Amino acid sequence: MENAWMVFSAVGIFLLACLSPGPVWAIITSIAISVSRRHAILAGLGVAAATLSWSTVTMLGLGAILSQHPWLQAGLRYSGAAYLAWLGIAMIISNFRGAQVQLAGSFAKQTSEWDAFSQGYVASITNPKAAAFFLSLFVAIFPLSASTAVKVVTVAALGAASAAWHCGLGFIFSTPSVQNRYLSRKSLINTLIGLVLVSLAVRMLVVP
Q1: Helix 23-34 / helix 176-184 crossing angle, nearest 10 deg
Q2: What is the pTM of this model?
Q3: First-to-final CA distance of the chain
Q4: Nearest Cα to 56, choosing from 127, 122, 130?
Q5: CA nearest 14: which of 148, 141, 203, 119?
Q6: pLDDT digit string (tens) for 130-172?
Q7: How far apart, in whole angstroms, are the C-alpha atoms of residue 186 and residue 101?
Q8: Residue 195 forms part of a structural domain
């Protein structure tokens, strides 16, 4: 019973954290409304893969290494901010040029499925707060005596919860009604999303 409580607690806290809109939210919704449902779901799976990566390396103790080496955290923060700023600026510029929205080279209908998956993964894996989140999650919930099996089950549960949440987000924002509203306000929405991504990049730089 205690082991089950630890797993459910970890998943519950993770899902609560997902409620806060951030870079991943902006990217998945952008792909959903401007490309296709399939691409949005693949982006969600990319985020889930990043969740598995972060939770796995944290369980193995690498999260503690990051917390002890500020320069590693800084490098991750700078790379993540640069990536988000690049995506946001690309969206804004594409609107001024009268082109179809573009992210990471192409957000047109010919965007490859791998591009969608990798954009979701990179946006999540370069989030410097992920290391601190998963490290604090494991430290707060799991006692030192917690077995490896329980931690492995938790990592798998976190990956499944991440996939369900982020793929569901892509599914909802790719519905015809949402896409029709997007088409009627495409330029404004793309510009706003681009500004959100740039502001998140700036915040990532100024708020450790």
Answers
A1: 90
A2: 0.69
A3: 38
A4: 130
A5: 141
A6: 766 776 666 666 665 667 788 889 899 999 999 999 999 999 8
A7: 9
A8: yes
| Domain extent for 43 | 2-11+21-206
- Residue 45 tokens, joined: 């799976």
Residue carrying the six token digits 């630890």: 6
Alpha-carbon Rg for the chain, nearest whole angstrom, is 18
Q: Tokens 């604090």, residue? A: 136
Alpha carbon separation from 174 to 83, 145, 166, 177 (Å, rounded): 24, 44, 12, 8
pLDDT digits (tens, 9 = 90+) for 163-179: 999 999 999 888 888 76
Instruction: Please check whether residue 116 lies inside any domain of the structure.
Output: yes
DSSP alpha helices (H): ranges in 19-147? Answer: 23-34, 37-59, 62-68, 70-96, 113-125, 128-141
174 CB neighbour count, 10 Å cutoff = 23
Residue 124's identity, in one-letter code, is S
Look at the chain and report how many structural domains it folds into: 1
Per the domain annotation, does 16 fall within a domain?
A: no
Phi-psi region of 105 (alpha: psi -120 to 50; beta: other; left: phi over 0): left
Using a 10 angstrom Cβ sphere, with 0-12 exposed, 13-18 middle and 19 or more buried, the burial of residue 154 is buried
Q: What angle do CA 184, 39, 163 make, to 5 degrees?
A: 115
Compute CA 58 distance to the chain's CA centroid, rounded to the nearest angstrom. Answer: 17
Structure tokens at 33: 């409304």
